[in-house]
Design brief:
Elements lengths: L14 H5 L1 H13 L5 E2 L3 E3 L4 E3 L8 E2 L7 E5 L4 E9 L7 H7 L5 E13 L2 E12 L2 E12 L2 E9 L4 H13 L2 E3 L5
Antiparallel strand pairs: 1-2, 2-3, 3-11, 4-5, 5-6, 6-10, 7-8, 8-9, 9-10
């Protein structure tokens, strides 16, 4: 008569747990959740290529899920949106003004109200405020574009023209508290 094989306990638990496929799948899912896509804990964003730190969301601003932004907030009371994004590509060294202009290719009636190159996070950034129409709707855009270590970071405030002044201080605090981080730090 053959004796049934005895399963040895594993480091992860008992022999019964090791034999249970559901338990193994659950353990795998938990392990992979920590290795998954981008994460944002409220102040630190970590993606596959970029990482950065920002101050906590301004009072009254709610997190917003936007496909073209790593981090975004919306202030419904003032009709304003803050969007932050970063990307790293092996491209030619594109000037800051070209990177900024590229953000507004599909806009009409563009008028630059302010444009300056300023020191930012150990490099130079282009700060631009402009009015333009997006799908025929007038907006004011306050934009910061930073190039650092082969990556480009965009920080935008999009506001209704009549309420731009209400959202600008919160956006300025967010920008002033922005700093890049090594993407591979844990």
């Amino acid at each position: 008569m053959r004796r049934p094989l005895r399963r040895r306990p594993t480091a992860g638990g008992s022999a019964a747990e090791a034999a249970n496929p559901r338990a193994r799948l659950l353990a795998l899912a938990v392990a992979l959740a920590g290795c998954g896509g981008p994460s944002f804990d409220g102040t630190v964003y970590r993606g596959s290529e970029v990482a950065f730190r920002v101050p906590p969301a301004p009072a009254g601003w709610k997190p917003l899920s936007v496909s073209d932004a790593a981090v975004a907030y919306r202030d419904e009371a003032n009709g304003s949106t803050i969007a932050l994004n970063g990307r790293c590509r092996n491209e030619d060294d594109v000037p800051l003004v070209s990177l900024t202009n590229h953000l507004f290719l599909h806009f009409t009636e563009r008028e630059v109200l302010k444009q300056e190159v300023v020191p930012f996070d150990g490099r130079e950034a282009m700060h631009t405020v402009l009015s333009a129409k997006l799908d025929g709707v007038p907006k004011v855009f306050d934009v910061w574009v930073l190039k650092k270590n082969g990556c480009v970071y965009d920080m935008l405030l999009i506001a209704d023209p009549a309420r731009y002044a209400a959202g600008e201080p919160a956006f300025t605090r967010m920008v002033r508290g922005f700093s890049t981080l090594p993407a591979d730090d844990d």
